[in-house]
TrEMBL record:
Main location: nucleus
Record localization: Nucleus, Nucleolus
Listed GO biological process terms: ribosomal large subunit biogenesis
Family statement: Belongs to the NOP16 family.
Organism the protein comes from: Trogon melanurus (Black-tailed trogon)
Lineage: superkingdom: Eukaryota
UniProt keyword annotation of Lipid biosynthesis present: no
InterPro entries: Ribosome_biogenesis_Nop16
GO cellular component labels: nucleolus
Record's protein name: Nucleolar protein 16
Keywords: Nucleus
Length: 180
């Protein structure tokens, strides 16, 4: 197989390029990436990271914000080292307040089951009731689930949609009563 053109020649190093200068300028231009929108809006690019965080009432260094007490070697007494080193004034307390409020909101339940799994479970319950061995032998059991796997899928459906499951079982009982 022939070689690609131009791969065999020697590459020349360019001595004229100042690579340190290029690297520094690229670093200087990069702004800090801030994930929280509250911090992003209150950020002042003319100040350092430590100054910005101090104004918002946030800690730059967690080890300095909440120091671990050191124990004495001989006695088991804890040193009480209470230094009030220049408590900084919080000029933007709304940032912390908004973050605390957002953290206190209840988390949305985003877990849902696929429509295929819901239809599969409903079909199995409708045709076989609680007989898991019969469900495992059903022709619609494409993935060849064992009786325990089918039971687990039905339990997952029960946990995710308890109201819908109760309504479904009630409708099945209604149908059986109507047939008799």
């Amino acid at each position: 197989m022939p070689k690609a053109k131009g791969k065999g020649r020697r590459h020349k190093y360019s001595y004229n390029v100042n690579r340190k200068r290029l690297y520094r300028s690229a670093r200087r231009r990069a702004a800090p990436r801030i994930a929280c929108s509250h911090i992003r809006h209150a950020w002042d690019p003319s100040k350092s990271v430590a100054q910005n965080l101090a104004e918002m009432g946030l800690a730059h260094d967690p080890n300095k914000a909440v120091p671990i007490p050191k124990k004495k070697l001989l006695g088991m007494e804890v040193e009480t080292d209470q230094r009030d080193q220049g408590r900084k004034i919080v000029r933007k307390p709304y940032v912390v307040n908004e973050m605390e409020y957002e953290a206190s909101l209840p988390e949305k339940k985003s877990n849902t089951l696929s429509r295929d799994l819901i239809d599969y479970v409903r079909y199995m319950i409708q045709n076989h009731g609680e007989n898991y061995k019969e469900m495992a032998r059903d022709e619609k059991n494409y993935y060849q689930d064992t009786p325990k796997q089918i039971k687990r899928k039905i339990n997952v459906y029960k946990n995710f949609y308890p109201e819908e499951y109760k309504d479904f079982i009630a409708s099945l009982k209604q149908e059986k009563m109507d047939v008799q």
